[in-house]
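hey
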């Protein structure tokens, strides 16, 4: 079907106007499938337009001026009667002949050119916002929909560039919406199917929409004197600037603010792992959900901008220049090193920054290597040590990976091998603490760095946490905590202490003590977790004696012990499997495949959409690394690698293709106490929250503390 032919059954109809705080500009609809929210300010609007304004006088005069310049055919000012806005509209229309305010009367408006619009007026000469507070700064938040991602042609004068299909903009100041502009744009070409699937904008919808040469001057007028804001501003502003260049319009060079850069500067990666608009909209509870339509995405970006500005306000940022200075900026040494990213592919993998002596400075992982490495040379990472690292770097090596899981595992292994000075985590993977059972006649729990047996509980990041857990385990199993080494024929007879006494039975011989040692062994092996039940009974007994603080302290220690034991048992369950093959959907109709042996990634691959996965599984299995388990916890595997694989296997959509010896947690694991541990942790957090209702209550007497009064000087 020729997209330039008129479509049957598409009768022109007058669109509904939309209410807004100050003004709304709306276009009538030609196609029934076009949404009523798509307004236009353009001289080639094919039919009549409705302009809805409220009682703000400045808004009425502004939109009347804009209407007189922009609309080619007929216009109608719609103002609610019986208010001040009606009188202001009357005064405005007397200044502009041809506009009417008397009900449905339509008056002809003379078409004016845009010769009187001086696009050079902007912020190129001086900075009028130097002392302007952010609350008084006018922002125009803009979002575009396009036919693709190429803003400029590959060759000068070429026509292979993509075009704009929709513009949405919201003008705000001080948290108040001043106006909105939205319109579909005829790109002059058909819209690719994948773009139609993403945005829902079809070629039929833009059939009678204005061209960019009519819309762009109107947008420049709408955004005159304001700061342009966009989510990933390089994309949106790049398309607008390229369109202006093709039309011979001088780009006014307005100040530009990118909410992606601002979010990455303000928010931590723990708080916002992703800075996609949809993720930030959820984080800041935006009133509009982004849906790849220009106006809705612009409205969502407004809420994100307000949320980010609230955050920087706590940092003493009050003006726009202060906000610009707050953003990350690339230093000269960083910009000079951009060529280091030239040979990096756009694939998942691991990257290594190397220094002058070919030493590894920093190791990282990325889904898109080229994009991530390039960010180090643009100032996107505000950390001082990263700028220092980039200044020292002379080369960037990379390792391509099949998928994100393989990249994560390779990163952990490279960090363990090189211990780069600019990495902070995972550089010393063997520095864990473990709890083992000593090999003696009267075994005890021992906290060690390198256990000689796979039978251990852990890992612990600090020795203090491990010692606290030993106390809990000893309470539950009856294993002694005294440090005296006893011979086979000796009797356990340590000194009795009122505080932190030894839980083992006094006077017990080796045979009598064997039951406690067996309970400890069963707990380590995941055969029986009943000792935790014993400790819970002790907590209840302490509470019944009104020793609440002691009971709460033991509760918190027990909850930590349960969580650590259960986590270690899950890792050990994976390390015990000789070979496990799993697959996860890649989101594009294919599969990400992994071969895991004894808790380590032995091979990885991908089966793309349309490729039978089982032949790929057989191929990567034959090429998989041979893993020989060692007499150590997790068979000698890196703790973080096994933990990463365990989390990946528990992810949504993951299927176990094959497991030689089965993959399951021990039947007597600490999992049965996991819910109790979660409840106990919640109780601890609740206890740390201040009670605003009882702050003034004196705990000793149950009365309110006397308030201090200050005598006023006479």
């Amino acid at each position: 079907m020729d997209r330039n032919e008129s479509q049957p059954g598409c009768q022109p109809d007058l669109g509904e106007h939309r209410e807004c705080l100050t003004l709304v500009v709306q276009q009538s609809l030609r196609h029934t499938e076009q949404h009523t929210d798509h307004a236009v300010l353009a001289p080639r609007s094919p039919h009549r337009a409705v302009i809805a304004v409220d009682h703000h006088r400045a808004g009425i005069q502004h939109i009347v001026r804009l209407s007189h310049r922009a609309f080619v055919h007929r216009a109608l000012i719609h103002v609610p009667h019986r208010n001040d806005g009606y009188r202001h509209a009357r005064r405005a229309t007397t200044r502009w002949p041809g506009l009417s305010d008397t009900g449905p009367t339509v008056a002809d408006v003379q078409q004016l050119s845009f010769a009187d619009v001086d696009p050079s007026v902007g912020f190129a000469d001086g900075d009028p916002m130097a002392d302007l507070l952010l609350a008084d700064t006018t922002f125009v938040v803009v979002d575009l929909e396009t036919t693709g991602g190429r803003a400029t042609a590959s060759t000068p004068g070429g026509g292979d560039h993509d075009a704009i299909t929709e513009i949405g903009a919201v003008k705000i100041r001080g948290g108040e919406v001043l106006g909105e502009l939205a319109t579909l744009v005829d790109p002059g070409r058909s819209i690719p199917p994948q773009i139609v699937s993403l945005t829902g904008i079809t070629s039929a919808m833009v059939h009678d929409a204005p061209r960019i040469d009519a819309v762009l001057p109107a947008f420049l007028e709408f955004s005159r004197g304001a700061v342009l804001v966009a989510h990933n501003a390089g994309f949106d502003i790049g398309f607008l600037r390229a369109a202006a260049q093709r039309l011979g319009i001088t780009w006014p060079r307005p100040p530009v603010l990118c909410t992606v850069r601002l979010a990455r500067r303000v928010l931590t990666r723990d708080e916002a792992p992703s800075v996609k608009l949809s993720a930030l909209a959820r984080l800041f509870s935006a009133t509009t959900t982004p849906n790849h339509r220009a106006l809705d995405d612009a409205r969502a970006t407004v809420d994100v901008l307000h949320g980010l500005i609230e955050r920087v306000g706590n940092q003493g940022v009050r003006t726009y220049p202060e906000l610009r200075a707050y953003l990350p900026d690339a230093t000269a040494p960083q910009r000079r090193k951009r060529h280091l990213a030239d040979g990096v592919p756009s694939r998942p993998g691991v990257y290594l920054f190397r220094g002058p002596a070919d030493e590894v400075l920093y190791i990282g992982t990325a889904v898109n290597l080229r994009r991530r490495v390039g960010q180090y040379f643009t100032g996107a990472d505000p950390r001082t040590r990263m700028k220092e690292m980039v200044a020292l770097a002379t080369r960037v090596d990379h390792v391509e990976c099949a998928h994100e899981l393989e990249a994560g595992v390779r990163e952990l292994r490279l960090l363990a091998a090189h211990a780069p000075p600019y990495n902070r985590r995972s550089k010393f993977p063997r520095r864990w603490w473990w709890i083992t059972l000593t090999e003696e006649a009267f075994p005890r729990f021992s906290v060690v760095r390198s256990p000689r047996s796979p039978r251990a509980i852990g890992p612990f990041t600090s020795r203090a946490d491990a010692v606290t857990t030993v106390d809990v385990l000893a309470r539950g199993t009856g294993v002694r905590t005294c440090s005296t080494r006893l011979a086979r024929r000796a009797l356990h007879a340590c000194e009795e202490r009122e505080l932190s006494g030894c839980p083992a039975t006094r006077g017990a011989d080796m045979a009598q003590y064997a039951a406690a040692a067996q309970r400890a062994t069963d707990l380590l092996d995941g055969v029986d977790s009943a000792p935790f039940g014993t400790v819970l009974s002790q907590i209840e007994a302490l509470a019944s004696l009104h020793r609440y603080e002691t009971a709460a302290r033991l509760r918190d220690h027990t909850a930590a012990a349960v969580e650590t034991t259960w986590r270690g048992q899950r890792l050990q369950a994976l390390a015990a499997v000789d070979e496990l093959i799993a697959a996860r959907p890649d989101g594009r109709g294919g599969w990400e495949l992994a071969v895991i042996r004894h808790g380590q990634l032995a091979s990885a691959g991908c089966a793309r959409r349309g490729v039978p996965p089982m032949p790929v599984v057989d191929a990567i299995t034959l090429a998989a690394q041979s893993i020989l388990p060692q007499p150590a916890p997790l068979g000698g595997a890196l703790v973080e690698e096994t933990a990463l694989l365990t989390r990946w296997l528990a992810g949504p959509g993951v299927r176990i293709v094959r497991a030689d010896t089965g993959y399951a947690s021990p039947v007597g694991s600490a999992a049965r106490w996991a819910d109790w541990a979660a409840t106990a942790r919640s109780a601890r957090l609740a206890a740390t929250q201040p009670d605003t209702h009882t702050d003034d209550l004196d705990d000793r007497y149950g009365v309110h503390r006397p308030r201090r009064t200050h005598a006023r000087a006479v």
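The chain has 20 helices and 21 strands. Residues 227 and 409 are 44 Å apart (CA to CA).
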